[in-house]
Fold this protein.
Amino acid sequence: MLDRENAIRLKFRELYGSDQGLGLTRAPGRVNIIGEHTDYNQGYVLPIAIAQDTVVGFKPNGSRRVNVHSMTMEESASFSLDETPSGEGPRWVRYVAGVAAALQDARIELAGIDMVIHSTVPVGGGLSSSAALEVSCALAFPSAAGVDVERKKLALICQDAENKYAGMRCGVMDQYVALFGREGAAVKLDCRSLEHELVPLSTETAKFVVCDTSIRHELASSEYNKRRQTCERGVQEASRILSGESVNALRDLEPGDLSGLETELDPVTFKRVRHVVTENARVLEAARAMKAENYIALGVLMDASHESLRDDYEVSCPELDAMVEIAWSQPGVYGSRMTGGGFGGCTITLVSSDHVDSLCKNVALSYRERTGNVPSIYVCAPEKGAEVISPAF
Ligand code: GLA
């Protein structure tokens, strides 16, 4: 961290003059163990915060402007706190300006700041680089203005920023786990009540390996928004069909309701609904398996999640399927699935610790052979959530 802090300070001095009294915040990326496309259906998710993170160096500048430089993108931008974000300019700036606007929409008074951003979360790689950026900014802005905002509120503000100002109707999982992640524990979040339980997760005898396909399909966000719409249609139809029950979100359906819906819903809507309903049930079982350190059971649930995302929710892609199939064929693997929104990005594999090295080697080779792409591979453990490292003064 010291090297990084020094690099940020150096850049800050170069761009804005003195770095005396520099404030620092950080927020991690995340990987979801199970519970995909359930968050915006008010269901359950089970992610962990990871070591890769985004650090923001900031100082009030006595104006109403925000001047920001990204060391990762090697780009600078500037915007006024008094203007609605235009959506113009580099994509990453939308997240920074979006968070400032969403904080102000929530009636939090901000002051202009100078900022330098440094991130180790691979951009657009399915490890939630956007939430890491949003959350580190959402800690920096209020800190610079001398206000304290409750963390749950910050998670919702960051989600709002992405929904309103970046055009992605995401759920709250990524922002929430960036704020509430803990070392040594997965976060079992109920996305309806916004209450979470920390599920202890030892990575001694088994480890999570994240493999980045290095593929980013353009249609990811348009297809994501389409899935949300289909789920909303599913809720309306299901509450009409199951007239005795109150169905406010797909979360309210149980696996036992599915047979009554199959003949009534159009086939695509039914498949989407079936994914969400079965995935919610899998998250609850997975949390129990994790507590019991039953990796075999957890792995089976991860495999089933992948099949459901591939066949029912249809958000996988050939590269993700190839990566998962390669992992499935490796010794010591308990389970493997795509993780995150889909259409590229990463897979997550649970493997016994003594097979981690062979898995990493074989996946790298076989994936390259099968697709011609070079993957990035990370061994991940649950890390702590976002923090104000030091306030600006
Ligand atoms: C993206 C979104 C999350 C969640 C996942 C799918 O990461 O940002 O809110 O919906 O996709 O589980």
Notes: The first strand starts at residue 23 and ends at 34. The mean pLDDT is 96.
